[in-house]
Design brief:
Mean pLDDT: 81
Number of strands: 0
Shape: elongated
Structural class: mainly alpha
Largest sheet: none
Low-confidence stretches: none
Number of helices: 4
Distance between the termini: 73 Å
């Protein structure tokens, strides 16, 4: 194995920081969507809004897991840097490896969350298609 030095975890450190920013923005968008969806559902409950609420709840839990794994990865990345700083090369390598695994898990959950987000948009599209189906008169 090539030399593991302080530069290696610093690359991951900056990547995780940007990823956490993206996750936080996603969470803030969901927060606003929850408020809007609640008002919409309270004034006019429909099966589409019920599906959206269920879908959004799953997405929020996945986003929370993504954030927790990302934060854990960032934490272990910093621990790895500290271990390198104090001269503990072997433990630093193992801690960094765990940080990488946590990041991989976070990204995997992100892929799943994106799939569920697409399903939420499909609910909207199908509802719009039903609402705007052309009638026989419209076709003539």
């Amino acid at each position: 194995m090539e030399e593991f030095n302080l530069i290696t975890p610093t690359f991951l450190f900056s990547a995780i920081s940007l990823l956490m920013l993206a996750y936080t923005n996603r969470f803030l968008s969901y927060s606003q969507l929850v408020r809007t969806l609640k008002d919409q559902h309270m004034s006019n409950p429909t099966s589409v809004t019920e599906k959206q609420i269920h879908n959004l709840r799953r997405r929020l839990y996945l986003t929370r897991s993504m954030q927790m794994l990302g934060i854990s990865s960032l934490f272990l990345c910093v621990v790895s840097m500290f271990l390198l700083y104090v001269g503990m090369q072997d433990p630093a390598v193992w801690v960094f490896a765990v940080a990488l695994l946590l990041l991989i898990a976070s990204l995997g959950i992100s892929v799943r969350e994106i799939q569920i987000s697409v399903k939420a948009l499909e609910f909207h599209l199908s509802d719009m298609e039903e609402y705007h189906k052309p009638t026989l008169k419209d076709r003539l």
